[in-house]
Design goal:
With 386 residues, the protein is α+β, with helices and mostly antiparallel strands. It has helices at 3-13, 36-50, 93-107, 117-120, 145-149, 181-195, 199-208, 257-269, 275-281, 363-370, 378-381, and strands spanning 25-27, 33-35, 54-61, 64-75, 80-81, 88-89, 231-232, 238-240, 254-255, 286-287, 311-312, 317-321, 324-333, 336-343, 348-354.
């Protein structure tokens, strides 16, 4: 067993999840406490106001799950309750799980974070069909795995958002932040090529199985059919589950509240990676000055987030507060909205998973009431309360 995989197994052994029905109160970021009844009331009210059918909440205290509960419905039409084991679409939560895999491979020198991607492949990048559009822009030779994980490669979020639907490089690689699913997919190509293994197998062996994430996969599995959630659009119409057949490092992960809480505990406790690799993953690589995260290539800039030193690490967003550094990640997809943030020093954080395109409408109230966290860059994120 690889050292990094063994460490993930150790993390799983220290992760104890239970129903938490006996939990009377939870400690918040400022040291105050909130009762289980107040948590339930806050979540229920915010879900009702934003018209969110189902939501799962996990709160971390000192690197352990202090509260874990699913609310509402996984299937609104059949009145089936959401559970902590209901399979939901992780969307871009996938990227941080994948980032841990990449950091492992970097530790083992299977890949080099700072060597150009094209030099680590057996043939030039434009000779791969999906990247032939880059042949005339030699800046592709500058793109490294570090840039791909920190979203500084210059690649668009998705090529299909371009008018001509072709892949291009929009700015000098490494010069600024612009979120890019295309960049993560390029990194997947490198990982699968270097390891000669499919991504689903790698993630199961190195991340999901060692952590006991038994109901998590990069593709749909038959075992999910008995307890899965439907996604719902803004009008409350069911979009069904996402039965992905192809692993996509940028967003195909199917997971549960309980499983992703296990993952967050492992990251919070610093398990699964060496101290050096974890610190690098959660260290600022680029300052973020864009007014909004999306659309990714918008030219507008702002100094509004300088006070919190908004930045990006390797796979994770970062900001700094009087309580120290926080690392965060969003997950957006049609019918699915997720968010997690953890304050590194206190190992205090929250995980929010919803099966609704309206899910972002509950974030501010939950972050500020349940966690006492007023530092989230709400405007940059586009989290508009409803």
């Amino acid at each position: 067993m690889k050292k990094s995989t063994l460490l993930f197994a150790m993390a799983a052994a220290t992760t104890a999840l239970s129903a938490h029905g006996e939990q009377t109160s939870v400690k918040r970021l400022d040291g105050s406490r909130i009762s289980a009844a107040a948590i339930d009331a806050t979540v229920a009210q915010s879900m009702h106001r934003a018209q969110v059918p189902g939501a799962g909440i996990a709160i971390l205290n000192q690197g352990k799950v202090a509260y874990l509960k699913a609310y509402g419905f996984r299937d609104k039409e059949q009145q089936l309750p959401l559970t902590e084991d209901s399979v939901m679409t992780g969307a871009s939560f996938t990227k941080v799980a994948f980032a841990c895999l990449v950091m492992q491979l970097g530790e083992e020198k299977i890949l080099d974070l700072d060597r150009a991607v094209t030099l680590q492949l057996p043939k030039p990048l434009p000779e791969y069909p999906r990247y032939k559009d880059l042949a005339k822009d030699l800046r592709y030779k500058k793109i490294t795995p570090r840039m791909l994980l920190s979203h500084t490669s210059g690649l668009p979020n998705w090529r299909w958002l371009n008018d001509d639907r072709r892949l291009d490089i929009r700015f000098e690689p490494g010069s600024r932040y612009a979120y890019s699913g295309e960049g993560i997919d390029l990194l997947q190509l490198l990982v699968e090529t270097l390891t000669k293994r499919p991504l689903e197998a790698l993630m199961q062996e190195r991340v999901f199985q060692p952590l006991g994430m038994t109901r998590t996969s990069m593709v749909w599995a038959a075992r999910f059919e008995a307890d899965h959630a439907n996604g719902y659009d803004e009008g409350g119409h069911s979009l069904g589950p996402q039965r992905r057949e192809k692993a996509d490092a940028a967003g195909s992960m199917q997971t549960t509240l309980g499983d992703f809480a296990r993952f967050m505990v492992a990251v919070a406790q610093g398990k699964g990676l060496s101290h050096k690799a974890r610190e690098l993953m959660l260290s600022p690589q680029i300052e973020i000055t864009s007014r909004h995260q999306f659309p990714t290539m918008a030219p507008d800039t702002t100094e509004a987030n300088k006070a919190i030193r908004l930045s990006y690490g390797l796979g994770w967003g970062l900001y700094f507060t009087p309580y120290g550094k926080a690392f965060f990640k969003e997950g957006h997809d049609d019918g699915w909205m997720n968010y997690t943030v953890c304050f590194d020093q206190q190992q205090t954080g929250i995980l929010i998973m919803t099966n609704s395109s309206n899910g972002e409408g509950i974030y501010q109230e939950l972050l500020e009431t349940l966690l006492r966290n007023p530092y989230t860059p709400l405007e940059w994120e586009g989290f508009t309360p409803r």
